[in-house]
Amino acid sequence: MAEHAKTFNVYTSWQGSKLSTRLIGPNGNVITDSQAGNNGGRYEAGKTFQMLEVKDPASGAWNIEVSWADTPPVPEQVNISIAEKSDVFAWMNGFRPRYSVNEPVTINVNRGKCSEQ
Question: Which residue has better confidence, 99 or 67?
């Protein structure tokens, strides 16, 4: 997470079962759907998506844990999108088309200054 981020959003979507998403901050704090509203964040969900938003997130390495709340009868694809609102322009590298279960996903961020207009 970049220093001085205003918000940090994690979006998960899938084909139809039910997921449980947890965010673990650099200080070890765990944020779930029931804690997302603390400190001005929020949680939204539908049948096939969830969104967790953290306001004024701590800078450093965050972990995202996604698990099945209801295990599907057949494997389903899960999509995870991450967004951050800050005054920093960033290029995110390191995505592959497929990851294995329990495989860590490393996201590298190259920061640069936004040009003034």
Answer: 67
